[in-house]
Amino acid sequence: MNHKRTLSLILFLLYLGSAWLAAQEIPRQYITYKAIEELNIDGLGNENSWEKAPWSDTFIDIEGKKEPTYKTQMKMLWDDSCLYFFAKLDEPHVWGTLKQRDTVVFYNNDFEIFIDPDGDTHNYMEFEMNALNTIWDLLLTKPYRNHGIVLDSWDIQGIKTAVHVDGTMNNPKDRDTGWSIEIAIPWEVLKEANTHNNIPVREFWRFGFSRVNWEFDVKEGRYSRKKNEKGEYLSEYNWVWSPQGVINMHEPEKWGYVYFSGMAAGAKDSFEIPKDEYIKWYLYSWYRQLLQAEENFTQVSSKMQSASKEILGKPIKLTFNQHVSGWNISAKSPFTKKMLIIKEDGKFMMK
After folding, report:
1. Is the pTM of this model over 0.70?
2. Do the beta carbons of residue 24 and residue 281 sit within 8 Å?
Protein backbone atom coordinates (compact mmCIF):
# COMPACT_ATOMS: atom_id res chain seq x y z
CA MET A 1 0.00 0.00 0.00
CA ASN A 2 1.28 3.47 -0.87
CA HIS A 3 0.79 5.25 2.48
CA LYS A 4 1.77 8.66 1.09
CA ARG A 5 -0.85 8.37 -1.66
CA THR A 6 -3.45 7.19 0.86
CA LEU A 7 -2.67 10.11 3.17
CA SER A 8 -2.84 12.55 0.25
CA LEU A 9 -6.25 11.15 -0.75
CA ILE A 10 -7.56 11.46 2.81
CA LEU A 11 -6.33 15.04 3.05
CA PHE A 12 -7.90 15.85 -0.33
CA LEU A 13 -11.27 14.44 0.72
CA LEU A 14 -11.12 16.35 3.99
CA TYR A 15 -10.35 19.48 1.99
CA LEU A 16 -13.41 18.95 -0.21
CA GLY A 17 -15.61 18.53 2.84
CA SER A 18 -14.20 21.60 4.58
CA ALA A 19 -14.45 23.62 1.37
CA TRP A 20 -18.17 22.84 1.08
CA LEU A 21 -18.73 23.78 4.74
CA ALA A 22 -16.86 27.03 4.15
CA ALA A 23 -19.10 27.79 1.14
CA GLN A 24 -22.21 26.82 3.09
CA GLU A 25 -23.18 29.69 5.36
CA ILE A 26 -23.78 28.09 8.74
CA PRO A 27 -27.07 29.50 10.05
CA ARG A 28 -26.86 31.43 13.28
CA GLN A 29 -28.12 30.04 16.58
CA TYR A 30 -29.87 31.56 19.57
CA ILE A 31 -30.91 30.10 22.93
CA THR A 32 -34.14 31.40 24.44
CA TYR A 33 -34.81 31.04 28.17
CA LYS A 34 -37.92 31.00 30.33
CA ALA A 35 -39.12 34.34 31.71
CA ILE A 36 -38.87 34.70 35.49
CA GLU A 37 -41.77 37.12 35.88
CA GLU A 38 -44.83 38.37 34.02
CA LEU A 39 -43.92 40.60 31.09
CA ASN A 40 -45.69 43.87 30.34
CA ILE A 41 -45.87 44.31 26.56
CA ASP A 42 -44.98 48.01 26.28
CA GLY A 43 -42.04 48.10 23.87
CA LEU A 44 -39.55 48.91 26.63
CA GLY A 45 -38.22 45.47 27.52
CA ASN A 46 -37.09 46.64 30.94
CA GLU A 47 -38.18 43.69 33.09
CA ASN A 48 -35.57 41.63 34.88
CA SER A 49 -36.14 38.74 32.45
CA TRP A 50 -35.31 40.92 29.47
CA GLU A 51 -32.25 42.30 31.23
CA LYS A 52 -30.99 38.73 31.71
CA ALA A 53 -31.93 37.49 28.22
CA PRO A 54 -28.99 37.43 25.77
CA TRP A 55 -28.91 39.65 22.70
CA SER A 56 -28.75 38.01 19.31
CA ASP A 57 -25.89 38.57 16.93
CA THR A 58 -26.09 41.96 15.22
CA PHE A 59 -28.08 41.81 11.98
CA ILE A 60 -26.15 41.61 8.70
CA ASP A 61 -27.06 42.27 5.06
CA ILE A 62 -29.29 39.49 3.72
CA GLU A 63 -26.58 38.32 1.30
CA GLY A 64 -24.04 38.34 4.11
CA LYS A 65 -21.68 40.69 2.26
CA LYS A 66 -22.17 44.16 3.75
CA GLU A 67 -22.57 45.71 7.15
CA PRO A 68 -25.95 47.48 7.54
CA THR A 69 -26.13 51.23 7.98
CA TYR A 70 -27.99 50.93 11.29
CA LYS A 71 -27.68 48.37 14.07
CA THR A 72 -30.42 45.81 14.80
CA GLN A 73 -30.59 43.14 17.51
CA MET A 74 -33.31 40.97 19.02
CA LYS A 75 -34.00 38.90 22.14
CA MET A 76 -36.45 36.10 22.92
CA LEU A 77 -38.11 34.65 26.01
CA TRP A 78 -40.89 32.16 26.65
CA ASP A 79 -43.27 31.11 29.39
CA ASP A 80 -46.19 28.70 29.64
CA SER A 81 -48.54 31.03 27.76
CA CYS A 82 -46.53 32.89 25.12
CA LEU A 83 -43.38 33.24 23.08
CA TYR A 84 -41.88 36.74 23.43
CA PHE A 85 -39.74 38.89 21.17
CA PHE A 86 -37.96 42.17 21.81
CA ALA A 87 -36.01 44.03 19.12
CA LYS A 88 -34.06 47.25 19.09
CA LEU A 89 -33.60 49.11 15.81
CA ASP A 90 -31.25 52.09 15.57
CA GLU A 91 -32.76 54.69 13.24
CA PRO A 92 -32.18 58.48 13.02
CA HIS A 93 -35.54 59.04 11.30
CA VAL A 94 -38.41 56.96 12.70
CA TRP A 95 -41.36 57.19 10.33
CA GLY A 96 -44.35 55.23 9.11
CA THR A 97 -47.49 55.76 7.03
CA LEU A 98 -49.34 52.42 6.99
CA LYS A 99 -52.03 51.99 9.64
CA GLN A 100 -54.30 49.19 8.43
CA ARG A 101 -53.70 45.62 9.59
CA ASP A 102 -52.62 43.16 6.88
CA THR A 103 -51.57 45.87 4.48
CA VAL A 104 -48.16 45.38 2.82
CA VAL A 105 -46.20 46.57 5.85
CA PHE A 106 -42.75 46.25 4.25
CA TYR A 107 -43.58 49.29 2.10
CA ASN A 108 -42.59 51.06 5.33
CA ASN A 109 -39.48 50.37 7.38
CA ASP A 110 -40.38 47.24 9.31
CA PHE A 111 -39.32 44.29 11.47
CA GLU A 112 -40.19 40.77 10.34
CA ILE A 113 -40.34 37.33 11.96
CA PHE A 114 -40.58 34.00 10.10
CA ILE A 115 -41.32 30.79 12.03
CA ASP A 116 -41.08 27.20 10.80
CA PRO A 117 -41.68 25.02 13.88
CA ASP A 118 -40.94 21.59 12.38
CA GLY A 119 -38.29 22.69 9.87
CA ASP A 120 -39.93 21.08 6.83
CA THR A 121 -40.11 24.47 4.94
CA HIS A 122 -43.92 24.16 4.65
CA ASN A 123 -46.73 25.78 6.68
CA TYR A 124 -44.65 28.60 8.09
CA MET A 125 -45.70 31.88 9.64
CA GLU A 126 -44.70 35.40 8.64
CA PHE A 127 -45.14 38.49 10.79
CA GLU A 128 -44.33 42.10 9.91
CA MET A 129 -44.59 45.26 12.01
CA ASN A 130 -43.82 48.94 11.42
CA ALA A 131 -43.07 51.78 13.84
CA LEU A 132 -46.79 52.69 13.99
CA ASN A 133 -47.48 49.24 15.51
CA THR A 134 -49.28 48.15 12.34
CA ILE A 135 -48.96 44.41 11.80
CA TRP A 136 -49.27 41.99 8.91
CA ASP A 137 -49.55 38.30 9.82
CA LEU A 138 -49.93 35.47 7.33
CA LEU A 139 -49.40 31.74 6.89
CA LEU A 140 -47.68 30.27 3.83
CA THR A 141 -48.40 26.64 2.92
CA LYS A 142 -45.18 26.48 0.86
CA PRO A 143 -42.44 28.91 -0.22
CA TYR A 144 -43.16 30.99 -3.31
CA ARG A 145 -40.76 28.81 -5.36
CA ASN A 146 -43.15 25.89 -4.77
CA HIS A 147 -46.30 27.85 -5.66
CA GLY A 148 -47.86 27.58 -2.23
CA ILE A 149 -50.99 29.30 -1.00
CA VAL A 150 -50.60 32.54 0.97
CA LEU A 151 -53.25 32.68 3.70
CA ASP A 152 -53.40 36.44 4.09
CA SER A 153 -56.59 36.30 6.18
CA TRP A 154 -54.91 34.08 8.77
CA ASP A 155 -54.43 36.05 11.99
CA ILE A 156 -52.42 35.42 15.13
CA GLN A 157 -55.26 35.36 17.65
CA GLY A 158 -54.41 37.00 20.98
CA ILE A 159 -51.16 38.58 19.83
CA LYS A 160 -49.89 41.57 21.82
CA THR A 161 -47.53 44.13 20.28
CA ALA A 162 -46.07 47.46 21.33
CA VAL A 163 -43.62 50.04 19.98
CA HIS A 164 -41.45 52.50 21.88
CA VAL A 165 -39.90 55.36 19.88
CA ASP A 166 -36.73 56.89 21.24
CA GLY A 167 -37.32 60.24 19.57
CA THR A 168 -40.36 61.67 17.81
CA MET A 169 -42.44 59.74 15.30
CA ASN A 170 -42.81 61.22 11.80
CA ASN A 171 -40.93 64.42 12.64
CA PRO A 172 -38.24 65.17 10.01
CA LYS A 173 -37.05 68.27 11.89
CA ASP A 174 -35.13 66.33 14.54
CA ARG A 175 -32.87 63.31 14.78
CA ASP A 176 -34.08 60.17 16.57
CA THR A 177 -32.19 57.36 18.26
CA GLY A 178 -34.40 54.51 17.07
CA TRP A 179 -37.36 52.34 17.98
CA SER A 180 -37.94 49.14 19.89
CA ILE A 181 -40.70 46.57 19.64
CA GLU A 182 -42.11 43.92 21.95
CA ILE A 183 -44.31 41.02 20.90
CA ALA A 184 -46.15 38.21 22.68
CA ILE A 185 -47.49 35.32 20.56
CA PRO A 186 -49.68 32.74 22.34
CA TRP A 187 -48.52 29.13 22.11
CA GLU A 188 -52.02 28.08 21.07
CA VAL A 189 -51.47 29.80 17.71
CA LEU A 190 -47.89 28.57 17.30
CA LYS A 191 -49.04 24.99 17.78
CA GLU A 192 -51.01 25.16 14.51
CA ALA A 193 -47.88 24.51 12.43
CA ASN A 194 -46.05 22.44 15.04
CA THR A 195 -46.37 18.68 14.56
CA HIS A 196 -45.42 18.09 18.20
CA ASN A 197 -48.31 20.32 19.34
CA ASN A 198 -46.54 21.35 22.53
CA ILE A 199 -44.09 23.89 23.94
CA PRO A 200 -40.75 22.82 22.45
CA VAL A 201 -38.65 22.73 25.62
CA ARG A 202 -35.15 21.38 24.86
CA GLU A 203 -35.97 21.40 21.15
CA PHE A 204 -35.19 23.82 18.33
CA TRP A 205 -37.30 25.62 15.74
CA ARG A 206 -36.20 27.47 12.60
CA PHE A 207 -36.59 31.26 12.66
CA GLY A 208 -35.88 34.06 10.24
CA PHE A 209 -35.63 37.67 11.40
CA SER A 210 -35.48 40.52 8.92
CA ARG A 211 -35.50 44.31 8.90
CA VAL A 212 -36.55 46.24 5.80
CA ASN A 213 -35.20 49.79 5.55
CA TRP A 214 -35.91 52.33 2.80
CA GLU A 215 -34.22 55.52 1.69
CA PHE A 216 -36.71 58.35 2.05
CA ASP A 217 -37.75 61.79 0.87
CA VAL A 218 -39.50 64.52 2.88
CA LYS A 219 -42.11 66.67 1.13
CA GLU A 220 -44.28 69.14 2.97
CA GLY A 221 -43.14 67.64 6.26
CA ARG A 222 -44.12 64.07 5.31
CA TYR A 223 -41.89 61.05 4.81
CA SER A 224 -42.16 58.79 1.77
CA ARG A 225 -40.06 56.16 0.00
CA LYS A 226 -37.43 57.70 -2.24
CA LYS A 227 -37.71 57.48 -6.04
CA ASN A 228 -35.10 57.75 -8.80
CA GLU A 229 -35.17 60.16 -11.74
CA LYS A 230 -37.54 57.78 -13.59
CA GLY A 231 -40.07 57.91 -10.76
CA GLU A 232 -39.30 54.34 -9.63
CA TYR A 233 -38.87 53.47 -5.97
CA LEU A 234 -35.30 52.76 -4.96
CA SER A 235 -34.67 49.21 -3.79
CA GLU A 236 -35.01 48.51 -0.10
CA TYR A 237 -32.25 47.33 2.23
CA ASN A 238 -32.74 43.89 3.78
CA TRP A 239 -30.90 43.31 7.06
CA VAL A 240 -31.28 39.94 8.72
CA TRP A 241 -30.22 37.96 11.77
CA SER A 242 -28.94 34.94 9.81
CA PRO A 243 -27.78 35.60 6.22
CA GLN A 244 -29.69 33.97 3.35
CA GLY A 245 -26.96 34.35 0.72
CA VAL A 246 -29.61 35.70 -1.69
CA ILE A 247 -32.16 38.50 -1.53
CA ASN A 248 -34.99 36.16 -0.59
CA MET A 249 -36.28 35.40 2.91
CA HIS A 250 -38.46 32.60 1.56
CA GLU A 251 -35.82 29.88 1.59
CA PRO A 252 -36.67 28.53 5.05
CA GLU A 253 -33.91 25.93 5.00
CA LYS A 254 -31.43 28.78 5.50
CA TRP A 255 -33.07 30.34 8.56
CA GLY A 256 -31.42 30.32 11.96
CA TYR A 257 -31.86 27.85 14.82
CA VAL A 258 -33.57 28.84 18.07
CA TYR A 259 -33.17 26.38 20.94
CA PHE A 260 -35.74 26.49 23.75
CA SER A 261 -33.86 26.02 26.99
CA GLY A 262 -35.70 24.67 30.02
CA MET A 263 -33.63 27.01 32.18
CA ALA A 264 -34.71 30.42 33.47
CA ALA A 265 -33.39 33.70 32.10
CA GLY A 266 -29.96 34.38 33.54
CA ALA A 267 -28.83 30.74 33.29
CA LYS A 268 -26.27 29.47 30.80
CA ASP A 269 -27.28 26.63 28.48
CA SER A 270 -25.65 25.23 25.32
CA PHE A 271 -26.83 24.02 21.93
CA GLU A 272 -25.20 22.37 18.93
CA ILE A 273 -26.83 22.06 15.53
CA PRO A 274 -27.53 18.33 14.99
CA LYS A 275 -25.24 16.66 12.46
CA ASP A 276 -28.16 15.60 10.25
CA GLU A 277 -28.89 19.28 9.62
CA TYR A 278 -25.59 19.57 7.72
CA ILE A 279 -26.79 16.83 5.37
CA LYS A 280 -30.11 18.63 5.05
CA TRP A 281 -28.36 21.84 3.91
CA TYR A 282 -26.45 19.81 1.32
CA LEU A 283 -29.66 18.20 0.06
CA TYR A 284 -31.32 21.61 -0.32
CA SER A 285 -28.33 23.01 -2.18
CA TRP A 286 -28.96 20.37 -4.85
CA TYR A 287 -32.73 20.74 -4.62
CA ARG A 288 -32.46 24.44 -5.52
CA GLN A 289 -30.28 23.53 -8.51
CA LEU A 290 -32.83 20.98 -9.69
CA LEU A 291 -35.64 23.55 -9.50
CA GLN A 292 -33.65 25.90 -11.72
CA ALA A 293 -32.40 23.23 -14.13
CA GLU A 294 -35.38 23.21 -16.54
CA GLU A 295 -34.14 21.54 -19.77
CA ASN A 296 -30.93 20.44 -18.03
CA PHE A 297 -32.81 18.61 -15.28
CA THR A 298 -31.56 15.12 -16.23
CA GLN A 299 -27.98 16.35 -16.46
CA VAL A 300 -28.14 18.02 -13.04
CA SER A 301 -29.77 14.99 -11.37
CA SER A 302 -27.07 12.71 -12.82
CA LYS A 303 -24.35 15.06 -11.65
CA MET A 304 -25.90 15.13 -8.18
CA GLN A 305 -25.91 11.34 -7.86
CA SER A 306 -22.30 11.03 -9.02
CA ALA A 307 -21.10 13.77 -6.66
CA SER A 308 -18.89 12.68 -3.78
CA LYS A 309 -19.06 14.65 -0.56
CA GLU A 310 -17.77 14.29 2.97
CA ILE A 311 -19.71 16.03 5.71
CA LEU A 312 -18.22 16.13 9.20
CA GLY A 313 -15.86 13.35 8.23
CA LYS A 314 -18.50 11.00 6.78
CA PRO A 315 -19.16 10.23 3.08
CA ILE A 316 -22.60 11.31 1.88
CA LYS A 317 -24.28 9.80 -1.17
CA LEU A 318 -27.39 11.40 -2.64
CA THR A 319 -30.11 9.46 -4.45
CA PHE A 320 -32.63 10.70 -7.02
CA ASN A 321 -35.95 8.88 -7.34
CA GLN A 322 -38.73 9.43 -9.87
CA HIS A 323 -42.21 8.03 -9.27
CA VAL A 324 -45.77 8.48 -10.51
CA SER A 325 -46.42 11.52 -8.31
CA GLY A 326 -43.14 13.32 -8.97
CA TRP A 327 -39.58 12.95 -7.69
CA ASN A 328 -37.51 13.27 -4.54
CA ILE A 329 -33.89 13.34 -3.45
CA SER A 330 -32.59 11.60 -0.36
CA ALA A 331 -29.57 10.58 1.68
CA LYS A 332 -29.08 8.13 4.51
CA SER A 333 -27.49 9.73 7.54
CA PRO A 334 -24.32 8.02 8.78
CA PHE A 335 -24.93 9.73 12.12
CA THR A 336 -28.49 8.63 12.98
CA LYS A 337 -29.11 6.00 10.24
CA LYS A 338 -32.28 7.89 9.31
CA MET A 339 -33.33 8.63 5.74
CA LEU A 340 -33.45 12.35 4.92
CA ILE A 341 -35.81 13.15 2.04
CA ILE A 342 -36.82 16.27 0.12
CA LYS A 343 -39.94 15.84 -2.00
CA GLU A 344 -40.51 17.53 -5.35
CA ASP A 345 -42.58 20.27 -3.67
CA GLY A 346 -39.70 21.05 -1.30
CA LYS A 347 -41.14 19.43 1.83
CA PHE A 348 -38.51 17.85 4.07
CA MET A 349 -39.13 14.45 5.68
CA MET A 350 -37.10 12.18 7.93
CA LYS A 351 -37.75 8.44 8.28
Report:
1. yes
2. yes
